[in-house]
Amino acid sequence: MDVFGSFTLLLAFVCAVYAFVGGIFAIITRHPLLVKSTRQSGIAACVLIFIATFSVEYLLFSDNFSQAYVVSHSNRDLSTFYKVAALWAGQEGSLLFWSFLLSIYVISVLIAYRNKNGELMPYVGVILAGVQIFFLTLNNFVENPFKTLTIVNAAGVLEPFTRQDGNGLNPLLQYPEMVIHPPNLYSGYTGFTIPFAFALAALLARYPGEKWIHLTRKWTMIAWCFQSVGILLGAHWAYAVLGWGGYWGWDPVENASLLPWLTGTAFLHSVMMQEKRGMMKVWNVWLVFCTFLLCILGTFLTRSGVVSSVHAFANSHIGPWFVGFLGLTILVCFAAYLKNRDYLKSENQLDSLISRESSFLFNNLLFLLATVAVLSGTLFPVFSEWFATRQSVGALYFNKVMIPIGLAILFLTGIGPLLAWRKTSADSLKRNFGWPLIFGLLTGVACFFVGYKDGGSLLCLSLCGFVFWTIVMEFYRGSKVIAARTGMGLMMAAHELAMRNTRRYGGYVVHFGMVLVFIGLAGSAFNTEAQKTMNIGDSMKLGPYNLVLQSADTKAEKNYTAQRMIVEVLKDNKQIMMLYPEKRQFQGTEQAAGTMVAIYSTLREDLYVVYAGMDPDLNVPVVHAFLNPLVKWIWLGGVWVVMGTLLALMPNRRVALGVATVPETSASAVTQALAPGVTLREGHD
Amino acid sequence: MRAMTNAKRIGVVSFLFALAAAPLVIAQVAYSQRAKEIGTHLKCMCRGCDMSAGLCAHPGGSFSGPCDTAKTMLKEVDAHLAKGESQQQIIDAFVVEYGSTVYVEPPKKGFGLVAWLMPIAFSVVGFALLIFIVRKWAIRPASTVALAGAGGAAPSDALERARAQAARETED
Asked: Within a domain: residue B67?
């Protein structure tokens, strides 16, 4: 199977090279048969990568311990789910998995658009094949997952060697989210390749019209959604398994995943400027380019070990390959831009500083600031080593720098959607902002009296109230119009409203999700913790809770030994629930312990209990408990972000008014069809 | 100078307080709460985690909670506190011992200052660019502006609504 897998991987490389080289000839000669054959070669490359990936899975499932990769990342006792996940547990497998996910995107694009966008697709195919060639080079010649174990025998000759059992999966990775977090995040990273390919193709082909920008936007949303989910799952994983009570530590690898998300978010906003007003074309193309480059940079940071990180299990020496590919991509982008920059001529005009356009400019400024700040902070230790001694840049620094930027973005989330395109009058400002401002202030006051007494958090919570109310008002106004016109109930009308303009209202739902996330982040200022050595029957007080240790024992499981404890949680002397924190000692690995945190989660706060281990001196169990307010809101926010993105991806429901395409000159006739006296702002989303 | 004496006094007082309180609250912990506070400004030097000595929970270790390195560092902090040193003096002593990697955030002097100036510089450049762009784009014939005003006179209001309608209807 390993020879078969290795062969398919090599064949995939050949197909991708043909798709690339043949594709370039197809573009030059415009020969339809050549176009078709290169497209099919691209599809074949994807199918071959699928087969190679399944070969690795087959080797993992058949416990083939003559394979170096299987020995390093699996063992006989490993459960089914983690055998699937072992594919992305190590370097070689991760890179193959990158190719695999990219192939899913590539094959979807090649097949879905095979009869569409005729001028554009050959370029897209070539660019996608180019990216695939890079990863297939790594898969085939640098980090091949199909290496067999060898040993030097008595005669001094290398011969194959089979181990009895493997080393098993790193215990830190043995957690349910291992199965879903990396696929999501990788789908985000790889997904940004598609918008990149469309943007670069449109630029190279000087593709007329704005069709490509719709395609780019759609695929960006898909990748963005995966990236968001991946980041949040990673945060949740860190929270639930590392046992330090936090979910975000500004670790270089976390930062790397945030960077393309930030520029991707900036693009999803500024692309509207191009769609509605034909502005910022150069900027948008570069945002897409940068997002892709940051994805590659992120993979590089994760995989190369340039910056030290808790993801140290991913270290290796493939850095130069990534640097080379990054450099080459930047060169191609610049060359394409310099050659065809007149194609991106925009009609940049701004009527007023208080307009939707300028709010998007500010939005982009803030997201770019955030990107540059995170990037420079992450790379600062490396820079500092060049000029002076190595400096650490940790969470304290990032919090200080990023909190103001985050709050400014949150503020803009409330303001932006309420501003009209072109120009907003003072009157409409007053009408739109009065209530949200009051609601925001009231939220702040209420939070103060509830006990959230921290300046930054209060500001954040007030802004959350403000943004929340602007979103509610947007839905309410629109629904009222539809309700009045159709006689529906307000809830039904809101649903109808969202379905008629999915992108706009989906966007608001995403904003709502982000408000929830920010509420959760605001809670982190009030985290408290306590650690105590406890005998059975001892109790420990934390916030409103009283923790009583009921039992502590040790149990041998299939591939680990669990130190378990049962902690009774009391509030006002009433039992709330029992918590079962665990410490797992895995067999046969160096980094041998994993934590199973027990969390009692409510909307108000998380009671987070860790079995810290046995006190080395006293041989008595130690309980480490954290009280983390509002954390649950972050995960809830994530759910809303996904729902909002899905809504935004749905096609708009058509309304039977017979005014589908109306030239602006005959507009006044159309307005008669609308309810009189109701002012709608220009369609935006 | 005066500030330093104050800091020193606070340090000593809190240390004494912590010493008095520690046996009552957390009987077996070998370092003070104050040491833990100062420890949040020092990086745990075990190189296995990326946390501060004060908050080290050492993921994946056999004992989560401060690891041995962090505990040693915290005890060292207590030793410094016993000598009546201020927070800054203690941090400086650790920098002498471990080098500047022991800072959890770059110091606001020397090359570390660059880290703090970067975001400020980016903001200044960013806003300057934005202002430049806004000024450049704001040139536009007056008639179009009048036509595009929102919520103004009735005809433009109607136009806005029609545009809203048209934009919604023609979306993909």
From this structure: yes
Of the candidates B51, B60, B62, the beta carbon closest to that of A172 is on: B60
pLDDT beyond 90 at B32:
no
pTM > 0.95: no
Q: What is the mean pLDDT of residues A457-481?
A: 94
- Kindly state whether residue B133 falls inside one of the protein's structural domains: yes
Domain stop point among B43, B76, B102: B102
- What is the pLDDT, as a whole number, of residue B161? 64
User: Is B107 a member of any domain?
Assistant: no
- Interchain proximity B160–A679, CB inside 8 Å: yes
Q: Which two tokens stand for residue A497?
A: 């409203």
What is the Cα–Cα distance from B34 to B15, expressed in whole angstroms? 6
pLDDT at residue B101 above 70?
yes
- Of A1-5, A664-668, B68-72, the poorest mean pLDDT is in A664-668
Chain A CB within 8 Å of residue B65 CB: yes
Asked if residue B155 and residue B126 are part of one domain, the reply reads yes
Q: Of the candidates B115, B134, B171, which has its C-beta nearest A501's C-beta?
A: B171
CATH top-level class of A526-632 = mainly beta
Which chain B residues have a beta carbon less than 8 Å from that of A609? none
The CATH number of the domain holding residue B68 is 1.10.8
Report chain A residues whose CB lies below 8 A from the CB of B115. Answer: 376-377, 380, 384, 391, 393, 397
Residues A307, A301: contact at Cβ < 8 Å?
yes
Kindly report, residue by residue over A125-134, the tens digit of the pLDDT.
Answer: 999 999 999 9
Q: Which residue intervals of chain A bear CATH 2.60.98?
A: 526-632
Q: Give the span between the Cα atoms of A135 and A189, in whole angstroms.
A: 13
User: Do the Cβ atoms of A397 and B115 come closer than 8 Å?
Assistant: yes
* Chain A CB within 8 Å of residue B103 CB: yes
A567: β partners: A549, A579
Q: Which chain A residues are Cβ-neighbours of B171 within 8 angstroms?
A: 501, 503, 652, 683, 685
Q: Which whole number is the average pLDDT over A551-576?
A: 88
Find the domain containing B147 and state its range.
112-169
Q: Is a pLDDT exceeding 80 seen at residue A122?
A: yes
B63 CB near a chain A CB, below 8 Å?
yes
Distance set, CA A630 to CA A302, A450, A471, A522, A627 (Å): 30, 13, 21, 8, 10
Q: Where are the alpha helices (DSSP H) in chain B?
A: 2-25, 33-39, 68-82, 87-98, 112-137, 142-148, 154-169
Of B101, B161, B168, the CB nearest to A679: B161
> Any idea which residue has 């995403």 for tokens?
A510
- Residue in the block written with tokens 């693009």: A267
Name the pLDDT band for B152 (thresholds 50, 70, 90): very low
Written as one string, the DSSP assignment of A129-181 is HHHHHHHHHIIIIIS-S-PBPEEE-TTS-EEE---SS-----GGG-STHHHHH
Share of chain A above pLDDT 70, in %: 93
d(CA A540, CA A570): 10
| Tens digit of each residue's pLDDT (9 = 90 or more) over A436-461 | 999 999 999 999 998 898 999 999 99
Residue of A nearest to B126 (CA): A365
Within 8 A of B29 by CB-CB distance, chain A residues are 531
Give the number of domains in chain B: 2
Nearest to B172 among A214, A358, A593 (CB): A214
B43 is a domain residue: yes
- CA A667 to chain CA centroid, nearest Å: 42
C-alpha–C-alpha distance, residues A394 and A408, integer Å: 22
Contact B63 A395 (CB under 8 A): no
What element of type H or E holds A59? Answer: helix A32-61
User: Does residue B86 sit in the same domain as residue B124?
Assistant: no
DSSP A494-562: HHHHHHHTHHHHHHHHHHHHHHHHHHHHHHGGG-EEEEEE--TT-EEEETTEEEEEEEEEEEE-SSEEE
B122–A372 CB contact, under 8 Å: yes
